[in-house]
């Protein structure tokens, strides 16, 4: 690379510096095909905050105006720029640090006339700015290209987008780029499923080299894995299933940084029926209970495709690390084999076998009610795979038809901890007040 750069003239080096596609991330490169394998009409770029969406949009629009490959097949003379508001269109898409005026090469830079909301290139191409707050602005004008920014935040997304589609009628193949941090709105989901759409995705991490280290440390460190973080950082479409027992809001409300002193800890295990690739996961979830009866979910150590001795070792290792009191394992699938495998790893581990006599929904419903009442907390960092199962578990199971293995392990652990009249032996866990844990525990139960 050094040899190549040294061989270039100053003008050539400047031209290379101003050629965006040379340094573009994979999600900023133009897609080859739509969902149906043919040419795309809509390029939907879903990305987290700071993933480089605005820069990609500005480069794409400038390339359309200049007819420059690889972003443009032909020159577009009439381009629509649609922002959330008129202020956003001007301050972000046009005049912002990653906007069109900042990124266009000096000798090709368009002229901005704010009173007419127009960008005019030296070659005659024109881009007009519109506000999604005023869908009627898009009635009448016609275009051969359009850039829509932060569509998921538009106040009237459907009406504005529909009016734009009627105006995309110039040239042999009108196209539009949509750059947005996703939200589970109907329009976004419809565009993702559209066969003429090409979807690229990116997280904030993909552009971390161009972002402030303080931002990476403070914001990403704080929100990574949470519902808000998965949406705003990872660019995922996060939504609740209408008939699910849990909602994202309920889970976020029950999150705590650390657990208090726990009177008892158990490891819930839902063994898989097979270790083949693509088979069910082995659910392994740790939870504990305080002397007052509050439950804290400590860790999801579930994994997929494990042989029996491997998942058993994994469960026992978690038992030892957390100094748990017992392993609670469902034996419907493996019978005595489940307990035997765990005992082979460590014969001293107390294993309680449980049988599923009721359906998964009926077993999970009382646990979900405890979450709604604030009686169950999730400790520390988010557990996204477990929490995804919880928010996707409805009366018919998971939407994809898979087995809710992580959820089952959670339900077994919480159910064991909150059963009335339970007693698993004389083990004492000190709570710092010189009383064995079972004194206040049983006093509360008797009361």
Please, could you describe this protein's structure?
- Helix 12 crosses helix 13 (336-345) and helix 14 (360-372) crosses helix 16 (405-418).
- Strands 3-4-5-2-6-7-1-8 form an eight-stranded mixed beta sheet, sandwiched between helices.
- The protein has 447 residues and is of the alpha/beta class.
- The protein starts with a helix and ends with a helix.
- The chain has two domains: 2-229, P-loop containing nucleotide triphosphate hydrolases (Rossmann fold); 248-441, Nucleotidyltransferase, domain 5.
- The radius of gyration is 28 Å and the shape is elongated.
- It has helices at 2-6, 10-17, 20-23, 53-66, 86-94, 100-103, 157-167, 186-193, 213-223, 227-232, 248-253, 308-321, 336-345, 360-372, 384-391, 405-418, 438-446; strands spanning 42-47, 78-83, 111-113, 118-120, 126-131, 145-149, 175-180, 197-202, 255-256, 264-270, 281-289, 295-300, 303-304, 326-330, 351-354, 376-379, 393-394, 397-398.
């Amino acid at each position: 690379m050094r040899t190549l750069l040294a061989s270039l003239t100053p003008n050539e080096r400047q031209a290379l510096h101003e050629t965006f596609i040379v340094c573009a991330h994979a999600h900023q490169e133009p897609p080859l095909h739509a969902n149906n394998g043919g040419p795309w009409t809509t390029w939907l770029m879903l990305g987290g905050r700071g993933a480089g969406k605005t820069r990609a949009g500005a480069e794409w629009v400038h390339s359309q105006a200049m007819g420059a490959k690889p972003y443009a097949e032909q020159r577009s003379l009439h381009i629509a720029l649609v922002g959330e508001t008129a202020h956003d269109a001007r301050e972000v898409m046009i005049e912002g640090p990653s906007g069109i005026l900042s990124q266009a090469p000096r000798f090709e830079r368009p002229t901005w006339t704010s009173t007419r909301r127009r960008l005019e290139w030296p070659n005659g191409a024109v881009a007009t700015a519109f506000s999604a707050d005023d869908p009627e602005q898009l009635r009448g004008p016609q275009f051969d290209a359009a850039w829509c920014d932060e569509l998921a935040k538009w106040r009237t997304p459907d009406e504005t987008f529909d009016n734009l589609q009627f105006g995309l009628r110039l040239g042999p193949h009108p196209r539009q780029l949509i750059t947005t941090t996703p939200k589970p709105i109907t329009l976004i989901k419809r565009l993702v499923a559209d066969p003429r759409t090409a979807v690229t995705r990116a997280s904030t991490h993909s552009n971390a080299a161009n972002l402030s280290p303080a931002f990476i440390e403070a914001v990403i460190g704080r929100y990574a894995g949470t519902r808000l973080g998965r949406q705003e950082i990872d660019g995922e479409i996060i939504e609740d299933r209408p008939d699910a027992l849990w909602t994202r809001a309920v889970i976020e409300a029950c999150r705590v940084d650390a657990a208090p002193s726990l009177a008892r800890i158990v490891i819930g295990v839902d063994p898989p029926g097979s270790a083949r690739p693509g088979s069910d996961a082995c659910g392994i979830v740790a939870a504990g209970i305080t002397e007052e009866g509050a439950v804290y979910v400590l860790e999801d150590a579930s994994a997929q495709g494990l042989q029996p001795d491997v998942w058993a070792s994994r469960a026992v290792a978690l038992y030892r690390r957390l100094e748990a009191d017992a392993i609670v394992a469902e034996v419907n699938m493996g019978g005595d084999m489940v307990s035997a495998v765990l005992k082979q790893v460590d014969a001293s581990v107390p294993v309680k076998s449980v049988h599923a006599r009721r359906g998964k929904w009926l077993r999970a419903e009382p646990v979900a009610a405890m979450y709604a009442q604030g009686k169950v907390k999730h400790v520390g960092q988010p557990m996204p795979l477990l929490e995804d199962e919880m928010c996707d578990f409805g009366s018919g199971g998971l939407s994809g038809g898979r087995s809710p293995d992580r959820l089952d392990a959670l339900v077994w652990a919480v159910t064991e901890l909150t059963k009335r009249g339970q007693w698993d032996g004389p083990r004492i866990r000190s709570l710092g007040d010189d009383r064995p844990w079972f004194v206040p525990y049983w006093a509360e139960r008797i009361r």
